[in-house]
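Possible regression after last week's pipeline update?

I re-ran a chain I had predicted before the update to compare outputs. Posting the input and the new output here so someone can diff against the archived version. Not blocking, just want to make sure nothing changed silently.
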Amino acid sequence: MNLASRFAATRVDSSIVWPDPVPIAHERVLEGAPAAATLVLEDTPAYQLGLWRVSTGEFETDHTGYLEYIHILEGSGQLVDSDGTVTELEPGVTVLMRPGWKGR
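New output (post-update):
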């Protein structure tokens, strides 16, 4: 089974038991008090696959050394690249943040 079929076979519904949210590190926070919860579905030497949710707020992020693929299932927000490019996030939007991506 390849990565795409493993993800497709993962049901995302109300039966998921999420771990407690953890506050985003204060030095990264620009606004509010955002906290995030990560539910790891698979963790291998080659990749990590999981679900992530975050509360309202604004914070910086730095993808030095890793690639992140996200697909929005619910909610809305924005990704703002360090060059000012804004990507609107809403259900159905898919984004690839390459290694070295920085923004908020």
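Follow-up from reviewer: compared with the archived run. Helices lie at 3-8. Marking as no regression found.
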